[in-house]
Amino acid sequence: TGRHPRPELQRAQALREVKVVLVDDERDARELGARCLEDAGAEVTTAASAAEGLDAVRREHAGGVGPGQE
């Protein structure tokens, strides 16, 4: 039928190899969001502000973000 025999395992890997920077000023929201994304297979870095988020992106990509993308 084309359906995955264990859909929960398929969902658990839906974001495999995806890196996410999750930015929220509320700690609880960051933790919940990170948990959901990690459960889907993503590698998550959290930040409490846009500046922290951009720093995380710059650390991940040695050249930083491109012009006009900040």
Radius of gyration: 15 Å
Unreliable parts: none
Number of strands: 2
> What percent strand?
5-15%
Provide the residue-averaged pLDDT.
Answer: 81
* Estimated structural class: alpha+beta
Percent helix among the residues?
A: 40-55%
Tell me, what's the shape?
flat
Report how far apart the termini are: 45 Å
Tally of alpha and pi helices: 3
Which strand order do you get reading across the main beta sheet? Answer: 1-2
Q: Describe the biggest sheet?
A: 2 strands, parallel
Q: Can you write the helix and strand succession as a string?
A: HEHEH
Walk me through what this model shows:
- The protein is an alpha+beta fold.
- It is 43% helix and 14% strand.
- The protein contains 3 helices and 2 strands; from the N terminus they run αβαβα.
- It has helices at residues 7-12, 27-39, 50-60; strands at 19-23, 43-47.
- A two-stranded parallel sheet has the order 1-2.
